[in-house]
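Q: For a teaching session next week I want to show students how multiple molecules come together into a single three-dimensional assembly. I've collected the sequence lines for a complex. Could you give me the predicted structure tokens for the whole thing so I can convert them for display?
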Amino acid sequence: MIAFGQFTEVLLGGLLAGFLYSLVALGFVLIFKASGVFNFAQGAMVLLAGLALVRSLDFLVAKGFPYWIAVVIALLFAAAIMALTAWVIERFVLGPLVNQDGLTLFMATIGATFIIEGAAQMAFGSDVYPLRLFPTDAIFMFENTFPGGILVNKLDLWGAAIAAVLVAGLAVFFQYTKTGRALRAVADDHAAAQSVGIPISWIWFVVWLVAGLVALVAATVWGTKLSVQFSITFLALKALPVLIIGGFTSVPGAVIGGLLIGAGEKIAEAYLGPYIGGGIEYWFAYVLALLVLLVRPQGMFGERIIERV
Amino acid sequence: MIRKTLAVAAFAVGAMAVAAPAMAQNEQFLPSLVYRTGAYAPNGIPFANGVADYWTLINERDGGINGVKIVFEECETGYATDKGVECYERLKGKGPTGAGYFSPLSTGITFALTEKVPGDKIPLLTLGYGRSESRDGSVFPWNFVLLGSYWTAADVAIQHIAKEMGGFDKLKGKKISLVYHDSPYGKEPIPALEARAKKDGFEFKAIPVTHPGVEQKSQWLAIRQDRPDYVLLWGWGVMNSTSIKEAAAVAYPRDKMIGVWWSGAEPDVTPAGDQATGYKALLLQHPAGKFGVHGELEKHVISKGKGAAKDDFAHVLYNRGVLNSMLGVEAIRTAQKKFGNKPMTGEQVRWGFENLNLTAERIKELGFEGMLKPIKLSCQDHQGADEARLHQWTGKEWKIISDFYTADRSILDPMVKDTAAKYAADKKIAPRDCAKES
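A: Of course. Below is the structure for the complete assembly, covering every listed component.
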């Protein structure tokens, strides 16, 4: 019973961590789905959003603003920063590259990553900035069934709830709104979308803005978990295997991929790690992703790529 | 009139051009490998600020080291070994005599540079980090693991645990886990802890955390299940505060955690808020707070707007940076006594380090009383001290909670000797005969 309780705890912890990974993966999916660009800068955008939020929040609190009013203003400020970033990227990076192939756009986002990371630290600082928007204490479930109970962190539950709301909202946005359908049309073919009157620069601005707002949401959760600091950018690397599993174009796939990666890597670390030296969860996530690639190259939920010649 | 003015200006520029190299000949170039950006910046910045401010103090107050002005240049490594080596290659030849010494502030970079410095004849000052066996100056003539190695730290941590438990005999059958940064730095204490586990009969488990250390849930769930009596923390940067937060999440008592001296500074505890209260860490002798030297820094550097320090003034890592620079400057000063008051080469600075002898009087005179115990190095001993103590985070500040412990050299010296001998054999190094060196 103890062993089963321990397994359940690791599994549950992994699944909840998976929700947090999917929060970051969603930003990638959004941009890929709407523009066909793999946005390497998504991790840097989480950092920028987090820094803008926490630094403005600290400033407002120091000026004597009531905490929750300060939070609202800081969120608005961070959203404005993300809107400005979206505009700059569209205007100076992607706009001039319309109709270039995906690899060129991908390389452009790598350049954008380093610029955003540097500019964010220069503007807002490179220290560790604590953010406390959600409760972080633990709760113990099933204490009567398992000795010591099953430990669950409240922050992880908040992260899961937020991810669920985001997925639902984005699914509705893509399926049922005019802008959402236009985004998908642009993703299929930039030139064709332009030819039927879809304003591509506006669409790209919108999608980068939405991805920026998703990055802000991710920053609120991850910033509470880790404090806002540079290492948040490494989340991009955690999102990559999630995307490979879930598919680059599927919003629900980002969540399912996150759950599989979260649970898989934690179980591997807990039960396989001790036999092979430990510290395996980072690369084990990629083992899982490669296994999926071998069977379904488009990911479990990605759109099947059929090219007729 | 215009022509005359231009002629005077041209003469002045020409005179400056002639004078500049002459002045540059009396400058001591000191490189500073820093990380002010990236994952480890919160810990790298205060150290770099302390290093810079002490050098500025020497220039501003004394006009340099015995009249030799310090010229320093920072190079951003991001705590990455490849960038560290790149910085080393770029800076090693600067100044009239080349770099006086390097302080990489990274065990990984230290491992890489240990292979290079013998060829370039430049000492490596690794204050409380680097290769533990580099204490043996006969095999590692260019490495100076001053004040304490990770083996010193591991030994002192176990001594403190034994004291808290009521004696070494109480360690038998107990569980002690090490949560470590999965890098050369984090792995360094493992041999010393294994040696102590064998001697004292406790069960030792090493738990790696992958760089940068933001994901530790699995490790701490394993700790919750295994319930070790103590957890030692060998982290750096964000890994430290994440460990403390995860410990709190699994309700592991923070006062049963002991961090190494690189896991015991303000950036390690403040992000964790109240969850860090009770957490303990080793001190590389000096604590946070102001001592004699801080008054001098405030008077000659900070108040003149020439300081690098911001909110980190007199914090743990700032003070360590100040200490790091002071030890380097005193090594140069020692070398100048033998070679003359001029810029020193790396080889001469090495002589200075090997003959460094800071007495209590000299330490007081320098304004470091309370931060440092007397230290004396030699050709054979490149560490010079074996003492460490502990402090504990109260939720607001660090409070010293122990006297100095002295690492057990009966355990560590044979390890140093064997490991250094193995290194010498692997690298085909003929150890120096220190008995014959002056």
